[in-house]
Amino acid sequence: MSFEQHPPGSPAQPPTRVILEQPGGWSRWSTRIAWLIAGISFLSAVGSAAAFSQYFQRDARVVEKYHSLSQFAADKVAIVSVTGAIMGGDGFARAQLDHVEEDPAVKAIVLRVDSPGGTVSGSDEIHHRLTKLVKDREIPVVVSMGGLAASGGYYVAMANGGRDDVIFAEPATLTGSIGVIIPHFDFSEALGRIDVRDDSIASGPLKEMLSPTKQRSPELAEKERAVLQSLVDGMFIRFKEIVKQGRPKLDDAAVAAVATGQIFTAEQAKEAGLVDRIGFLEDAIDRAVEMAGLDEQKARVVKYTRPKGLLDEVLGGQSAGARVSFASFAELATPRAWYLCSWWPALVRAE
What we know:
Blueprint: H1 26-51, E1 63-69, E2 75-83, H2 92-101, E3 106-115, E4 117-119, H3 120-137, E5 141-150, H4 152-157, E6 167-169, E7 174-176, H5 188-193, H6 218-246, H7 252-258, E8 263-265, H8 266-272, E9 277-278, H9 281-291, E10 299-305, H10 310-314, H11 326-332, E11 338-340
Parallel strand pairs: 2-3, 2-10, 3-5, 5-6, 5-7, 6-9
Antiparallel strand pairs: 1-10, 4-11, 7-8
Helix pairs in contact: 2-3
């Protein structure tokens, strides 16, 4: 490359264009190869997302985890857990059922019950939602009872479609406790000893039913008890009807014989017709696979857990467990009917 000098006053020459040649054409080829790799990677990612979309989480309230059988099979058997006191509402049991409802890959349900029961409305809600899900999806339900499946826990176990050989109790399971209770405590005399009197204003005498601090005349106490007993009797009739739907082989006399509020061992429950087999969770899974017409080599068993937050990590995952809380005491002050195997229901919280 050279630069020419022009004498002053001479006409200006057009600028000289300089072209520098690149040694070789590798840069062009490397760019093309990079775009080609990027395109292949994108197509591969899209294909993988389509093939394994069933592994992605759809519901932020639950986390699906592999449990057993074939880890990469498409067809699923879902373990739905009902653990702790059943309070109803938007609880974890509801979240699991919603997740199953939205997952077409689930071909059978194993209902894992380890619960003393809970509120009448909460137990009935889970039973209703599970019954509807099974009917709409036409999938079998097999029940696996843990250490305790009593009262409301047994109530939800009746959402099995009335099929044969579908309720499994572990050898150490306690079940039964078919009955209704409305807890009531009377502290009025104790308050009188410390010169404290309940002077609440109510629209009528029955508005203060179940108040633990209100003194009552014998006539009013008798009237209250009659009203409450009629409520309990009505809910008890429904409980027995639910049992007959879930255990169609039991006639009225057989149901009446077990619906005394009594707790039964697994062997006693089997003899009374309340359960079908003595077995563990794995036995219930095998039965669910069989009922769904699946192959163990082509079925994946999944279970659901709660998402863990920072507090769970710090406390070792116990923050969502059973605990005594302000809400528990609020429940104690709220008149409720319970399908529950416990003498002090409101201090037990669902997991």
